[in-house]
Specification:
alpha+beta, about 30% helix, about 25% strand, 17 strands
Length: about 500
């Protein structure tokens, strides 16, 4: 094949669109043409051997034909052999492409691309291109998929994959398959510098033809076993910024030319100093153009992005509320309020989770264990089941005599007590004095004083009697003492 003016890859190869079972055959999405046009305007011209080669392959995409014997029937020829971008001029008598490759110890696999086809007749001056297929892991839409590619670098692979999927894609640098080293089966960018982004900082590596491991080393970025490394298209905003800078440099160059013209006018008026200024301005304009070209070349198209992954076990503790148990108390009256006989206490549960953070953000949690580290203690509440005797003055008097006798106040003391409280309340539990607010059997003033003997002071005759006996003992010494005071003063 005779090479054209714009490519060394045969047209049949440039036009080939192999199918793939990888699922990455969707048409290019919106913005693809713009992005490609932008890069074409701001990226140095690629070597001819990079352009137009198929990207993703299957065994049926481009099969290398092995036709049997090797033919050496023709005369001497000089051909160009390009193997993965390494171009050599070869003198050969091979009759076809297959014979040429065999003689050069090049043995393409079934997924590799050979153009012209191996069975093609070999002409003098022909360009023979071999592209070795390599398996890469493509990340698109949050999913990873292995794809075979004949792209010579990551820049080319990203361009083609992005156009086919219609969206953003990235290449995953494998670590497990490389003994813990960060690896990608193809170089990054053979024609431009690359960008390394890690820990919120972007660093430029001038030699983009290196692999991922060397790019990280050149940028002084270290990764550990958990970190993730992906290769993706460089931030287009950054590229646009570089383009704007180049445009500004163009404007300065234009201004310099205008100054040059003015200086030329000065020359016409025999101003020697102005003539010298012309030369100086021309030099500055030339420098500006060189700066413009350098700015255009300096915009990386590919970024190596390091995602810091931190995986560790974290424990957390939460409370477990205690329960309340109610038990029956046969010695407590049913009309008495339930009482807490045992305080409750909340328990604790400790949970251990494996937490994954990517660049400081939690992306995954997996429970490792959960156990009760402190058992809760039940609260116990006692509720009375004993029925209270019928509240009658006669029953209350009998209860009062019994409780007084237990204090040693029998006989005449019991009679004095009977006389006193018969006069005060008639032994009625609910006796209330409207003028003084005295209440109950002993006519406590006010009635709430009897709460010191029990919370049921307003309805329980036993509570009222117990309080009244305590009051008599502390104030008068005995029921007869209280009765004597009442007779003398009308109150006690």
């Amino acid at each position: 094949m005779t090479p054209s003016n714009d490519a060394t890859v045969p047209a049949t190869e440039r036009d080939a669109q192999p199918t793939t079972t990888s699922g990455l055959t969707a048409p290019a999405g919106p913005g693809t043409e713009t992005r490609v046009a932008y890069r074409a305007a701001h990226t140095p011209r690629r070597p001819l051997w990079r352009r137009g080669l198929p990207l993703t392959l299957t065994a049926t995409a481009v099969a290398v034909a092995v036709t049997g014997g090797v033919a050496y029937a023709g005369g001497a020829k000089t051909v160009s052999l390009d193997v993965d971008g390494s171009v050599t001029q070869v003198s050969t008598r091979a009759d076809d492409v297959h014979a040429l490759l065999a003689a050069q110890d090049v043995h393409p696999g079934t997924r590799d691309v050979v153009a012209p086809a191996p069975a093609s007749q070999l002409e003098d001056g022909a360009d023979v291109v071999v592209r070795t297929a390599k398996k890469v892991t493509v990340q698109a839409g949050g999913k990873n998929e292995d794809v075979w590619t004949t792209a010579t670098d990551a820049d080319h692979a990203l361009d083609t994959l992005s156009a086919r999927t219609g969206g953003d894609v990235s290449l995953v640098a494998s670590r497990s398959s490389s003994g813990g080293r960060t690896a990608l089966s193809i170089p990054l960018d053979t024609t431009a510098p690359v960008e390394v982004v890690a820990d919120g900082k972007a660093r430029t590596v001038s030699d983009g033809s290196v692999d991922v491991k060397d790019a990280l080393a050149d940028a002084g970025v270290k990764v550990d076993d958990d970190d993730r490394v992906v290769v993706e298209r460089a931030d287009e905003k950054a590229a646009a910024k570089a383009a704007a800078k180049a445009k500004a440099t163009d404007a300065k160059a234009t201004d310099a030319k205008a100054t040059d013209a003015k200086a030329a006018d000065a020359v016409a008026t025999t101003d020697a100093k102005a003539a010298e200024a012309v030369a100086t301005t021309d030099a500055k304009a030339a420098d500006a153009k060189a700066t413009d070209a350098k700015a255009s070349e300096a915009a990386p198209a590919v970024s190596v992005v390091v995602q810091r992954v931190d995986v560790k076990d974290e424990s957390s503790t939460r409370s477990v509320e205690h329960e309340t148990k109610t038990v029956s108390d046969p010695d407590r009256y049913t009309d008495q309020s339930p009482v807490v006989t045992k305080d409750g206490k909340d328990g604790k549960v400790t949970t251990v989770e494996t937490v994954t953070r990517v660049d400081g953000k939690v992306t995954d949690r997996k429970k490792v264990s959960s156990k009760v580290t402190t058992k809760p203690v039940d609260e116990v509440v006692s509720k009375g089941t004993k029925k209270r005797p019928v509240d009658t003055p006669t029953a209350n008097e009998a209860l009062g005599r019994s409780m007084a006798a237990s204090r040693g106040w029998g006989g005449s003391e019991a009679d004095c007590l009977d006389n006193l409280w018969t006069r005060e309340s008639g032994w009625s539990t609910h006796a209330a004095n409207p003028s003084s607010s005295a209440y109950g059997i002993p006519q406590s003033l006010p009635g709430s004083k009897m709460a010191s003997a029990g919370s049921d002071w307003s309805s329980n005759p036993a509570t009222q009697i117990a309080w009244g006996l305590d009051y008599i003992a502390s104030s008068y010494g005995s029921p007869c003492g209280a009765w004597a005071h009442s007779q003398a003063n009308g109150w006690y």
